[in-house]
Amino acid sequence: MGKRKRLAAEARKAALKTQYFAKAKSVPSSPRKMRYVVDLIRGMEVNRALATLHFNKKAAAADVEKLLRSAIANWEQKNDRKAEDGELIVSRVFVDEGATLKRMRPAPQGRGYRIRKRSNHVTLFVDTKTND
Prior knowledge:
Blueprint: H1 3-17, E1 20-27, H2 31-41, H3 46-54, H4 60-79, E2 88-97, E3 101-106, E4 112-117, E5 120-128
Antiparallel strand pairs: 1-5, 2-5, 3-4
C-alpha cells in the first residue's frame, strides 16, 4: 500500500473513533421497505425513536429498533457513562442495497418466473444534541 493510501486509511479510522454508530448487514428485507421505517426516525431523539419503532407495525421496525439499541450501547461504551434522557439523537441513518438472491418459480407452459430476494445494509449514527 502506498503512503497516500495508508494515510487516508488512518484518517478514516481516526474519524470513526469519534463517531458512534451501529451497522446491520444482510438484513433480509428489501431496501425500499427498510427506508420507509428509517425515514420515520431520522433526526429524532433516541427515546422517542425507540417508542416509534416499538409501536410500528412493519417487520423492518424490529430490526431498526435492535440496531438503535446497539448504537446507544456503543455510545455509552465509548463515553463510559449512561446516556441521559434527551441527550442523544439519531444524527444520520441510511440504507444500502445488499446482495440479491436470485430464484426461479415455476410458471405456466414450461416457463419460469424470476424471484429476487433482496437484502440491505443499514447504518445508524447517534450523536449528542450539542454536536449537531
